[in-house]
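Standup notes, protein team

Yesterday: finished cleaning the Micromonospora sagamiensis set.
Today: O-methyltransferase structure.
Blockers: none.

Input for O-methyltransferase:
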Amino acid sequence: MSTPSLSPRALMSLLVNASKAVDVLETAYTEGLLDALEPGPVTLGELATRFDVRPLRLYKFLDCLESVGVVEREEKGDDIVDARYRAVPGLRDAVHAVCGPGSIERDRDRYPWRQLHGRLAESLRGEVSMTDDDFAWPPKTDEQTASFEQSMSVGLGPVIEVFGQHADRLWAGRRRFLDVGGGDGTLAATVLRDAPGLRVDVYNLPAVGPLVERTRAGCADPERLGFVGGDFFAEPLPTGYDAISFVRVLHDWPNDVARMLVEKAYAALPPGGMLLICEEFRTPDRLAMQFFWSYFLIGVDSCVSRLREVEFYTSLLTETGFEQIEVLPGGWELIAAHKPEH
């Protein structure tokens, strides 16, 4: 299904009414309408009968869905009950991901973004900023670290998906994997399920250790999940691992820091070792889904949060000396690169 491009004026109208559009979509989801609309086509009359609603009111409700490009309508005769509707594929899952319990968007909404709302001009000039009590980057207290890492674990779905999708080719012959900046160990624990012979350690600031220990306690094979405390700015990366990853780490830092971290990984890996990079690479979809952070971090100078094109990383890996660089497809792409054998 394709939707014609909207004029700037029409787009502005939708944006101004965005909260109402979400209300319509969430209602369609909770009432079960999306379950009927997505397989479609289904007539308005059939929907009205099935869900015991008033046809004329439903017609207006469906106009709201059509206006945001998620439902297609086909007129059949003069009676509105004969109009046929179908939702775009994947709509129900998308609404569930955004509006359902535990969604990334609901987690993000707890951040104090309202302090910038209506004051963006002052923020752009540096007159309004987030304080360390609002959002400290990098986190400065154990409490801030724990809160940040727990929030980051909410958005791991696409990462877990792509790691699982390519598990056979990633872990064949690998023995030890270091997840640099690996949060509370959620990703590490899922990797263990797909790689029976692998030992996985999370490398992060010492304050994150208790979070990993909590994940480890609930892990199917806790003896294979460990934690290494350290600071990748102040120290070399630990050695003894034949695979290292940066997952949602490099985008937080300027280009020179990203380069320094990749070089540290190269130095730590043995010949034939593998480096994995998983980020939200810059595409129209990813930029849209990153909107919250782009908005919120207008008030923060210490965090770059820079979505880069995938070519930035593949070029950086080549310049550092890595070979056999592949971009593996998935919910988020995963870059795999290898240190030469000799």
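Follow-up from PR in the comments: The chain has 17 helices and ten strands.
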